[in-house]
Amino acid sequence: MVLRLSHLLYLTFFSLTVLFSSCKKPLIFSKGNLSFSSDTIVFDTVFTTIGSTTKQFKFYNNDKRTVNIEQIELVGGENSPFRINVDGVSGTNFANIELEGRDSLFVFVEVTLEANSQLNPMVIEDQIRFRTNGIDQYVQLVVWGQDAYFHFKDTNEGVWPNDKPHVIYGYAAVDSSKNLIIQPGTNVFLHKNALLYVYKGSLDIQGTKDQPVTFQGDRLELDYADVQGQYYGIYFQEALPSTINYAIIKNGTSGIHLFDNDPANPSYTLDIKNTKIYNCARYGIFIYSGAKVKAENCLISKNGTHALIVLEGGDFNFNHCTLLGYGGFEDQSAAVGISNYYVANNIANVGSINEGTITNSVIYGNLDHELAIDTLSDPAITLNFNFTNNLIRSITTFTQPFFVNNLWNTSPQFRDEPENDFRFWSTSPLNGAGSNSFPTSNGLDIEETTRDLLNPDIGAYEY
């Protein structure tokens, strides 16, 4: 019997197929379980209605064989305030995920809380359940939540309650002829680019030493503790006489920005005392185009560009203040920059400085020039300066007659500048070097230490 070639080839192919099919082994999954980079994901305080940052963890297959994860489930399901994403896919329930040996996958977690009308922080928990080979493993999810008063492009007057925080989206405005009082201990949190906007009205911040009023960004995760530019700041435009006492303003863009002065207001636009402004992306206090500021016992430090800037004129009287650089940025400029003009569209807009006074204050930092004055003269404008009994860092010392009894280029001997402790040691040249001709209004320093009546110290602190 003769087989044709075609039949022979067919039989050969069939035999090889059967042979290889019989040799192929089925995939044998690992009987092991998973390990995790963390068994608990904790979110710091999150305000209701405001989402958190995204946190992440990894789960691992430590076996050399592939493991089949039967189910990954957000236990709270659709009603959970948490949201999860497994390997790039969002959802609440995932099934039959194969994870190769010695491999891992990411899980991303976020949380948003609903308003709850509670005054005290609350703890909310959920779990992510991983079922592998019939065994359940859990990763705990925990968030501290806080309800708040929310302001979104609204107008405000009267007294803000201080029983829970105030959170500002966009802006919270104090409109023309209105007055807003912020009580001791109030915490104000501002969203990205938000501001407290005082337009032809007045603001009265009534903090105390033990209960300051605090302004900061609304992201309370530890990663945001010292991030600049989280919101804009407090903005005064043609404001009525306003006051700030014992406030902490941190992590903004311009801590306090003042624009123009109400012609009907012969007094200061802002009287600010016992206040700390620090870690803002640009300025501590920005006086622009005629606004007027009186400051006493204030510490303004480590801002991106200037502690104090005056542009296109304006009045200022700073007594017993500590005005510092130490911003550490490439565009950092002098701690104090003063100019009575501003150039826009090749036109110099010039303004007067009727009162330009800095007394008993520290102007210092890590630059060779921490004081810069640039003015244009004009028959229609006035320039009046008085710099007396200050400690100033500047290689170029000013010899104009309005510089009197100043200390130049000597270290203030701060206790711990890197840790923001700007008190000073007993051997500091600040000790007893102030003038009693410019006393503070209450005879105290920023910590309510009594000042020496005859020989007060320079700066916001009395030794």
- The domain count comes to 2
Helix content: under 10%
* CA-based shape: elongated
Cα-to-Cα separation, first versus last residue: 118 Å
- Low-confidence regions: 1-24
Proportion of residues in extended strands: over 45%
Number of helical runs? 1
> Radius of gyration in whole Å, from Cα?
32 Å
Helix/strand-derived category reads mainly beta
Please, what is the average pLDDT? 91
- Count the strands? 42
Q: Give the biggest sheet.
A: 18 strands, parallel
Features:
1 helix, 18-stranded parallel β-sheet, single chain, 4% helix, 463 residues, mainly beta, Immunoglobulin-like
Structure description:
The protein has an 18-stranded parallel sheet that branches. Strands 12-14-17-20-23-26-29-34-37-39 form a ten-stranded parallel sheet, with no helix packed on it. A hairpin with a 2-residue loop joins strand 9 and strand 10 (135-146). It contains one helix and 42 strands. The chain has two domains: 35-145, Immunoglobulin-like; 148-424. The chain has 463 residues and is mainly beta. The longest helix has 19 residues, at 5-23.
